[in-house]
Design brief:
By secondary structure, this protein is of the alpha+beta class. It contains four helices and seven strands. It folds into two domains: about 50 residues; about 80 residues, Rossmann fold (3-Layer(aba) Sandwich). The strands form two sheets. It has a four-stranded mixed beta sheet with strand order 1-2-6-7. Strands 3-4-5 form a three-stranded antiparallel beta sheet, covered by helices on one side.
């Protein structure tokens, strides 16, 4: 008979939580740190979905796979910014040189004193049929 709302943070794995809770998950709110993989309103989401389709739809588009995709893009950008042979230190320097960089509408920025990359936060809600509403 609990009538309140449950809130969760993004690293729960939103789709896994929805799958586990099923209809009991209806109304659970989950914070997200990446754009919605379900709404192609941003360029980075369109790129993400196009690459999944190009790969034969072998990856389920969800918040976890979107976060992995963005992390890989960010890692690649950090490597592009290294000089000489890539090393731990040159990768760190490359990543720390990323300032106000847009990855298709998802903005990231690093510095020697800031390794957070993004301040993006949004909310999603689980539905009773195991989906995620954004």
């Amino acid at each position: 008979g609990y009538g309140g709302t449950f809130y969760n943070v993004s690293f729960v794995g939103t789709q896994a939580l929805a799958d586990e809770l099923g209809k009991e998950g209806a109304g659970v709110v989950v914070s997200q740190v990446v754009p919605s993989p379900y709404r192609a309103s941003s360029a980075v989401t369109r790129e993400f979905l196009a690459l999944i389709a190009q790969g034969g739809d072998k990856v389920q588009p969800n918040f976890s796979s979107m976060e992995g995709f963005l992390a890989a893009k960010l890692f690649a950008e950090g490597l592009r910014r290294t000089s000489g042979r890539p090393s731990r230190d040159s990768l760190i320097s490359g990543l720390e040189s990323i300032r106000n960089h847009s990855m298709g509408g998802f903005d990231v920025s690093f510095s020697a004193s800031n390794h957070v990359a993004s301040k993006f936060v949004d909310l999603s809600m689980l539905t009773g049929d195991g989906r995620v509403r954004t």
